[in-house]
Amino acid sequence: RARAVLLDITGVPVIDTQVAHTLIRTGQAVQLLGARMILTGIRPEIAQALVGLGVELSSMITYSTLQRGLAEVERRTGAVSFGRARS
């Protein structure tokens, strides 16, 4: 069973109401399955758009970069990313 779901939105150019609603619903579904959603790739303009739309992301873990999100997944699951040796 998955303990974490990582969703990287680095390539998402604009967040509108429909995209924000989809993110919220995805996060709720992940939570219902007993996992945490980790949202990465949040640039300042995307963060401003989410705040402006009144999107509540408190149920998700957020990071500005994919690398930080992957580190969180590793910490939570003990998994190792490709190309990195376990110490």
UniProtKB/TrEMBL annotation:
CDD domains: STAS_RsbR_RsbS_like. InterPro entries: Bact_StressResp_Reg, STAS_dom, STAS_dom_sf. Residues 1-73 form the STAS domain. PROSITE patterns: STAS. It comes from the Bacteria. SUPFAM superfamilies: SpoIIaa-like. Transmembrane segments: none annotated. Keywords: Phosphoprotein. The keyword Nucleotidyltransferase does not apply. Pfam families: STAS. The keyword Phosphoprotein applies. This is STAS domain-containing protein. It comes from Kouleothrix aurantiaca. The lineage of its organism: Bacteria, Bacillati, Chloroflexota, Chloroflexia, Chloroflexales.
